[in-house]
């Protein structure tokens, strides 16, 4: 299968890597050459790390890299694609624009997919002349490690499109969970609900960030606590999703003030070096030393940050 991925950021690069590793020919496209180069370098680094850890054979790394080509020209990237996956920033208008432009260049048999984590796929499809060939393929970060892909069926998604998506996800060695298009789908809606309640507890001083996360890691066997996960996702991204879900589903998704204040201060989590935790070299080293969460916000010894 020839796969085109639109957007060479963290998710786009991860999807391109997963597809190429599974044997698909991949075009990774972004609007600037520097973005494409960064995405290709990220893929190279991840595969090289896999080799160093004994998880990837050197020959597998080389073969995967050979299957990926970078591009900035949308028409060239989409030409001949069997599947085009949009992975641009989580902005409804931007995604509609990109998908609309892509449809003009992709062949009549190409399936189009959006990696949106929460936005209405049905609304995205309304920008297309043939909305039946669009669905959602919601991957999880890091793509090469996470075994789930949420397949979001829009109002007019046809069976042929759905079958192509199922086959593609299976080819990656991942599990497809099919959901009807609704705000937040299943995974984002549940994940955000847990995350927003954790932020409210932090804000009210119920417990420290480290202890809230430890409760979910040790008590419920979560691989990462909800506040540290928010840092990894990006506080700005979580805020945008909450505001969208509040508009669609009501006040239970109202963003906490603690989250808004951190975003206004530029404390967006792992990508900026501080959110609910302080990050160094890609690792959470300690809870952030601030007073946003009241008396309980900085309590504890920070042991939850490093588990």
For the structure shown, list the relevant keywords:
EC 1.1.1.35, 16% strand, globular, (3S)-3-hydroxyacyl-CoA dehydrogenase (NAD+) activity, eight-stranded mixed β-sheet, 6PGD_dom2, disordered C terminus, 3HC_DH_C, two-stranded antiparallel sheet, 12 helices, 307 residues, alpha/beta
What this model shows, in words?
With 307 residues, the protein is an alpha/beta fold. The chain has helices at residues 10-21, 33-52, 58-66, 74-78, 92-105, 121-125, 159-171, 187-203, 209-219, 226-233, 235-249, 257-264, and strands spanning 2-6, 25-29, 68-71, 83-86, 111-114, 134-139, 148-153, 175-180, 277-280, 283-287. It starts with a strand and ends in a 20-residue tail after the last strand. Mean pLDDT is 92; it is low at 291-307.
Strand and helix map with partners:
Blueprint: E1 2-6, H1 10-21, E2 25-29, H2 33-52, H3 58-66, E3 68-71, H4 74-78, E4 83-86, H5 92-105, E5 111-114, H6 121-125, E6 134-139, E7 148-153, H7 159-171, E8 175-180, H8 187-203, H9 209-219, H10 226-233, H11 235-249, H12 257-264, E9 277-280, E10 283-287
Helix pairs in contact: 1-2, 8-10
